[in-house]
Amino acid sequence: MPKNPLFDLQQYGQSVWYDSIGRSLIRSGGLRSLIDRYAVVGVTSNPTIFDKAISGSSDYDGDIHRLAGLGQSAPQIFEKLATDDIRMACDVLRPIYEQTGGFDGRVSIEVSPHLAFNTEETVKEARRLWQMVDRPNLLIKVPATREGFPAIQQLIYEGVSINITLLFAVSFYEAVMEAYMAGLERRVAEGKAIDEIHSVASFFVSRVDTMVDRELEAKISTAQNPAEQARLRGLLGKAAVANVKVAYQAFRRVFSGPRWEALVVKRANLQRPLWASTSTKNPTYPDTLYIAELVGSRTVNTIPENALLAFADHGVVRGNTVEEDLGGAQRVLQQLIEAGIALQDIVEQRLVAEGAQLFVNSFDSLLDSLSRKCDAVSVSS
After folding, report:
1. What is the structure's pLDDT at 206?
2. What is the per-residue pLDDT for 378?
3. Per-residue pLDDT tens digits for 308-359
4. Which residues is 167 bridged to in the sheet?
């Protein structure tokens, strides 16, 4: 079978993970096909993905009716359905996990989004899911909130492999990397092994442009000076890629030098940055934008179906683009601030809160749908 541009990403050290999951995808051989045809070597999930998979199909109805008939609640049923899917996907990807020494072949499941701002409950939920799924290639998704930072360190210390999610700010990313290294160092200090602990840090991309562009458009509409309007238009669609490029430089800086090398001696695994939310939301932007512009060594791009197919069809890999024009990336971020865009507030506060709430909404919508199906079973019986 001819190789498509997604395979070219491997030459630059970037792994392709698929940002979706569903029972029919796994059981039909679709996931196996994604591996063979589209260079997919991992899978990510979140509450929105599970809401679409379970509420948007009849694939789960038999299990829902059976479990409801046993008196299980909607949250219990969801957990059973989700962990079964994750476990099956882990098994499909297990050979890749073995071949890559644990870096790829990974499948992610998220702690309840209702716990995003609760450190202790996040740790408890992550432990429980880790034990319940019981697969070495699992990643537990933990949010990059201020309350999530101590949870990250604690879970790494306990030997739980994690995927840090809802990450938008470079400042928060630095805190995430610090928590990862501190967790490893605690284990090393106690003589515990660290070679089987893995982590990725998921930096969300397109949502940054969506929110920043909205504010730029508002300023363009009120600007009186044509030159000012043109200057602001020139910043549209530039924030997200610039933000990631700066984040990647932080990654290179942190995972080098004496502190990191001391952990490498103990066989520490690199916490790779992962680019998430990489489908293009604005139809006027190229549909491969957040893949083509973010190619980088020792990174992951988790790609939803529409963007995956688009890049396979007409994507171009022109090199290590995440390190191109770093000065330009810094200038874009500075120009946004000078234009009155509260960039720090957007990436540290608003996008985190919005993202967490969107996952809560999807999670609650899914539980409502399951509750209705449970009620229908109860009435019919």
Report:
1. 97
2. 56
3. 999 999 999 999 999 999 999 999 999 999 999 999 999 999 999 999 999 9
4. 203
Residue 55 is predicted with a pLDDT of 86
User: Of these residues, 52, 124, 141, 219, which one is catalytic?
Assistant: 141
Task: Take residue 51 and report the two structure tokens written for it.
Answer: 């809401």
- CA dist., res. 298 & res. 18, Å (int): 17
| Residues facing 141 on adjacent strands | 110, 163
Model confidence, pTM: 0.95
Q: How far is CA 26 from CA 34, 109, 138, 276, 284, in A?
A: 10, 15, 16, 22, 33
3-state class of 255 per DSSP?
coil
Sketch the domain layout of the chain as residue ranges: 5-208+240-323+348-380
Per-residue pLDDT, 373: 80
Say how far residue 345 (Cα) sits from the centre of its chain: 21
Name residues of the chain where pLDDT drops below 70: 1-2, 377-381
Q: Do the Cβ atoms of 291 and 311 come closer than 8 Å? A: yes
Q: Report how far residue 71's alpha carbon sits from residue 369's, in angstroms, rounded to the nearest whole number.
A: 16
What CATH class has 5-208+240-323+348-380?
Answer: alpha beta
Q: How far apart, in Å, are the Cα atoms of 17 and each of 93, 110, 177, 308, 316?
A: 11, 16, 21, 10, 18
Rounded CA separation 286/297 (Å):
23
Look up residue 93 and give its two tokens. 């990807």
Whether 141 sits among the annotated catalytic residues: the reply is: yes
Mind giving me the DSSP string for 303-351?
E-HHHHHHHHHH----S-GGGS-HHHHHHHHHHHHHTT--HHHIIIIIH
> Are the C-beta atoms of residues 200 and 274 closer than 8 Å to each other?
yes
CB neighbour burial string for 120-150, b if at least 16 within 10 angstroms, e if fewer: ebbbebbbebbeebebebbbbbbbbbebbbb
- The three-class DSSP label of residue 31 is helix
